[in-house]
Design brief:
The structure holds 2 protein chains of 2 kinds. Chain A is an alpha/beta fold. Chain A has 7 helices and 10 strands. In chain A, the strands form 2 sheets. Chain A has a 6-stranded mixed β-sheet with strand order 6-7-8-3-9-10, with helices on both faces. Classes of the chains: A alpha/beta, B alpha+beta. Bound molecules: adenosine-5'-triphosphate and magnesium ion (MG). Adenosine-5'-triphosphate binds next to helix 1 of chain A. Chain B: One of its GO terms (molecular function) is transmembrane transporter activity.
């Protein structure tokens, strides 16, 4: 499903954040990316999500050459293909939980009634329907991250990308999110997960890849 | 103060918003300088210009046949202050090469260097003063001859125009060197006087009498009243523009300053977490707002001074005064005002930032302050509008103060545009009234003489020519009216002259000899009313049956030629052709019958109108640009605050186009409401200023010249607010659309 071939990403003047890296992810897989801080994990995730472009090499997701997409095409690709979950949730604080979850569908111009039903289902499934009308500022970290996951899943993306989804959470909340990811994967969701959390990687991932200095570490 | 430097440096790194702040402040200060100049120039323009030139209270002419130079000079002892005698000559000039043109009679005074004379320090408007014989300096007036032109005199010699000058006391129509004046054929001497008591007619009359019967005098009071007539026309107009400009500039500068501080709130939070005291925060904020503000102010002053040159020249021509030089005190005042406004708006914002709990300040940038605007966000989310549009529309409600400021900015811009468009239309209609005879007819036939000198009767010829629909003749006449010092300028007509289409302010057009229609100026001069009867020599009693608007402030009377039996006026005939008549063929027929005829055409706009239109256009363009820059600045600040949110929205699939659309629609509410509020404001100012202008000039305007706004025009103008706001948001929308998502998400 994901085919990253010989990709490098250099920021101006600096050494490469990613250095001739190649990586494949199959459908239904849950891949955990591990590695020290600054090793290029977030950079790789951004490339897959079409948020950034490689300096060289190619990124193909579901048959689409992501590295060749223009800004508008990349946005449409994200709507259809990618769900993103961040370490710091990145919810819009002036929208209610429901409105946050609805946002991807609304931006994509999906019919309102169907989207509402879907959002309600997701909130129910993720156990946060109690907070549907609340603003993110009032929720706990674990709850916020579940809202973020709900928003990521809103458009039924084939690929879920999560960048340290438990990084900002305490142990209990982290466990909630871990359980959630396990369930999702069990339902066949393809996931790429960046984490420092070995326990999380162990519990969820079908495969682990370790990055060091922008390259896949051997062994 | 290194902490302050850190905060300030943060601001410098945000290059785009700094440039916008500088530009917005610069434009606003430019507007302030020009508005200040307008207000200064419009306050007592005659009095100031008269004082500036140390004008002559009394100008006296002594015939050299009756008075010697010494006798003229001796009169100086009667006044508080006097200068002269200067040799005076009367001559006729015309630009060289224009043989057909009549000579224009000029009163020419010989003065070596008016700047050194204690009274009537004439101001040069262009070129230089006359240095030798053969040179002449023209007084700026109705007759304008550019420096460099050679003029012929009646005696066959020539003079070169070397400059244009203006004497507020109107002491001469042209100046030459004293030697040249003698050479032109001196007719007398000019003396100029100033008195301690010159304010009343009685005092001036006493001074005039004291000079003896040999002196022909001109009092400054008459000159002043003439000037007031001219000046009062434009004072309310320019004052209105000046005030709108000042208000708009203050609004934009204030908004810029407050926005600068607000966008630094998060950095302030960090600094506070590291130990900055609230007092230090306030100081840092003020410095941060003042630095780009000061840079902008200096640039604005430079631009304002440059633009002031054409502006003050235009204004001086309108007022018949001398252009104000670039006045340091207006500049200084503009800078002080800008700094005060910045400090006054930045301080409360800074104080709020200083008192904000550090944790809250840290959260700013991700979170809009408190829960404001949530209702709007909820309503927008429920609406069926496309999501980028509804997100944009709800956005400004999280910052009500900024929304209000933007709304006012748009309202001022729209009001200025509405006012300017209305003014231009009104002036065009007033001007058009003057042209009514020409525009309401197809052909005009001029008076001509047959070879034997007899005046043929064109009326009979016109009546007999096929194609003639209706026609009437009109000609000038001086009509003496009891109670008026001078004869009224009149127009006598024959045939149905109501076809000229003048608009009636009151009453009706005359239908019989013995009836007359008059202008507002006539009623003012005679103190009569419609329905009254006036008498005079050369005609029987005249009943005033109507008040007519002919676009002028003159004292004028229209009546049938039969009212004045003794009069033989040279008539112009205005003909309306029957539909389908070929005008060229018709003209040819008249020419073949020895009549001088041509197609009617309206004359071009007069000089005053052109000056006024260019002035209005300049000021409107400036005010609209200031408003657009104000919007631009607000949107840049807002997009900065929201850069993280924009990143999030992009990460879940918002395209650049949708992002741009969202940013532009974020000004939609302000644009729409601002436009809808600005149009009535501009409308009211127009409906106040234009009649006030006219009243000052002694004109009563028909409603048709004031009700110039068609409903569709008003609607268009209201929507123009939206367009103005969208134009201001266009650039930042583009920037927001291009923001790299990965970068935006990293931004804190
Ligand atoms: N926008 C940028 N400009 C310059 N350098 C960048 C940028 N983004 C990332 N880098 C650099 O690229 C390298 C990889 O960064 P990246 O964020 O991918 O690391 P990471 O593995 O996600 O680290 P962490 O576990 O701390 O999140 C780092 O050295 C970082 O400094
Ligand atoms: Mg990272």
């Amino acid at each position: 499903m994901i085919d990253v071939v010989d990709v490098s990403r250099r920021y101006e003047g600096d050494r490469a954040a990613l250095d001739h890296l190649s990586l494949q992810v199959a459908e239904g897989e849950c891949l955990a990316l591990l590695g020290p801080s600054g090793s290029g994990k977030s950079t790789l995730l951004n490339l897959i999500a079409g948020l950034d472009r490689p300096t060289e090499g190619s990124v193909t997701v579901g048959g689409t050459r992501v590295d060749r997409l223009g800004e508008a095409a990349a946005a449409r690709y994200r709507r259809a293909t990618i769900g993103l979950v961040f370490q710091f949730f990145n919810l819009l604080d002036d929208l209610t939980v429901t409105d946050n979850v609805l946002l991807p569908a609304q931006i994509a111009g999906r019919p309102a009634a169907g989207s509402r039903r879907r959002a309600h289902e997701l909130l129910e499934t993720l156990g946060i329907d109690r907070h549907a009308g609340a603003y993110p500022g009032r929720l706990s970290g674990g709850e916020r991250q579940r809202v973020a996951v709900a928003r990521a899943l809103m458009n039924r993306p084939p690929l879920l990308l999560a960048d340290e989804p438990t990084g900002a959470l305490d142990t209990a909340s982290g466990a909630e999110v871990r359980k959630l990811l396990i369930d999702l994967h069990a339902d066949g969701q393809t996931i790429v997960l960046v984490t420092h959390d070995e326990v999380l990687a162990e519990a969820v991932a079908t495969r682990t890849v370790r990055l060091v200095d922008g390259q896949v570490a051997v062994g | 103060m290194s902490a302050i430097r850190t905060v300030v440096r943060g601001a410098q790194r945000r290059r785009v918003s700094t440039i916008v702040i500088v530009a917005a402040t610069a434009m606003a200060v430019t507007a302030t300088v020009l508005a200040g100049l307008l207000l200064a120039a419009s306050s007592a323009p005659f009095a100031n210009a008269f004082a500036g030139q140390h004008g002559a209270h009394l100008t006296a002419f002594f015939d050299s046949a009756k008075t010697t130079k010494d006798q003229a000079a001796a009169t100086a002892s009667q006044a508080g202050q006097a200068t002269g005698p200067f040799p005076v000559a009367a001559t006729g000039i015309r630009p060289e090469g224009l043989q057909g043109m009549p000579f224009t009679a000029l009163r020419v005074v010989g003065r070596a260097d008016p700047g050194r004379d204690p009274i009537d320090k004439v101001s040069l408007l262009s070129g230089r003063w006359a240095r030798t014989t053969g040179e002449i300096v023209m007084a700026r007036g109705d007759l304008r001859i550019a420096p460099g032109t050679v003029v012929s005199l009646e005696n066959g010699s020539t003079l070169t125009v070397v400059g244009e000058a203006r004497s507020i006391s109107q002491t001469a129509q042209a100046w030459v060197t004293p030697d040249q004046a003698a050479a032109l054929g001196q007719t007398g001497w000019q003396m100029l006087y100033r008195y301690a008591d010159a304010g009343t007619v009685a005092a001036m009359t006493a001074h005039q009498t004291a000079l003896g019967p040999a002196a022909q005098t001109q009092s400054w009071l008459g000159v002043r009243d003439d000037a007031a007539h001219r000046t009062q026309l434009f004072v309310p107009l320019l004052t209105a523009f000046g005030l709108i400009g000042l208000a708009l500039a203050a609004l934009v500068i204030g908004n810029v300053a407050a926005g600068t501080v607000a966008s630094a709130t998060r950095r302030i939070g960090v600094m506070k977490a590291l130990g900055l005291t609230p007092a230090q925060v306030v100081r840092a904020c003020l410095v941060q707002a003042l630095i780009p503000g000061m840079i902008g102010a200096v640039l604005g002053i430079i631009a304002g001074d440059l633009l002031a040159v054409p502006l003050t020249a235009d204004v001086a021509d309108l007022f018949g005064t001398v252009p104000m030089s670039v006045t340091p005190w207006v500049d200084a005042l503009a800078v002080v005002a800008a700094v005060l406004v910045i400090a006054a708006t930045a301080a409360p914002a800074a104080w709020r930032a200083a008192r904000l709990r550090t944790v809250d300040a840290l959260a700013v940038g991700r979170t809009p302050l408190s829960g404001r605007g949530r209702l709007a966000a909820r309503l927008a989310a429920r609406s069926r509008l496309p999501r980028p549009l509804s997100l944009g529309l709800a956005q400004p409600f999280t910052r009500p103060a900024r929304l209000l400021a933007m709304l006012l900015t748009v309202a001022f811009g729209t009001a200025a545009a509405t006012f300017a468009i209305g003014l231009a239309s009104s002036l065009r209609l007033v001007q058009a009234a003057d042209q009514k005879p020409a525009t309401s007819a197809d052909v005009v036939v001029y008076p001509s003489r047959d070879a034997d000198g007899s005046v043929p009767n064109p009326g009979a010829v016109i009546a007999a020519t096929p194609g003639t629909g209706s026609y009437y003749g009109r000609g000038p006449a001086d009509i003496t009216i009891d109670g008026l010092r001078e004869a009224a300028r009149g127009t006598v007509t024959t045939g149905d002259a109501s076809a000229a289409g003048y608009e009636m302010l009151e009453g009706r057009w005359y239908t019989a000899p013995g009836e007359a229609v008059v202008t507002t100026g006539f009623l003012t001069a005679t103190g009569k009313h419609i329905g009254d009867t006036v008498t005079g020599t050369g005609h029987g009693p005249l009943t005033l049956v109507g008040e007519v608007f002919d676009g002028s402030a003159n004292n004028h009377l229209y009546t049938d030629v039969a009212t004045l039996p003794g009069l033989r006026a040279p008539f112009e005939w205005y003909v309306k052709l029957t539909p389908g008549t070929d005008r060229a063929a018709y003209l040819q027929t008249l020419t073949s019958r020895n009549l001088m005829a041509e197609a009617t055409r309206a004359e071009g706009a007069d000089g005053t109108l052109i000056v006024l239109n260019s002035l209005t256009a300049l000021l409107t363009a400036l005010l609209v640009s200031v408003a657009a820059l104000g919007v631009l600045n607000a949107v840049v600040l807002d997009s900065r605050d929201r850069v993280h949110d924009i990143g999030v929205q992009k990460s879940i699939g918002m395209t650049p186009k949708q992002t741009a659309f969202m940013v532009i629609s974020s000004v939609g509410v302000a644009g729409l409401i601002g436009g809808v509020a600005g149009v009535p404001a501009g409308y009211l100012v127009h409906h106040w200023a234009v009649p006030a202008m006219a009243r000052g000039a002694g004109i009563r305007l028909p409603d048709s010249t004031i009700d110039v706004f068609a409903p569709t025009l008003l609607l268009t103008l209201a929507l123009a607010g939206l367009i103005l706001a969208a134009a201001g948001a266009l650039l930042p929308a583009g920037w927001a659309a291009r923001t790299r998502t990965a970068v935006a998400l990293r931004t804190e």
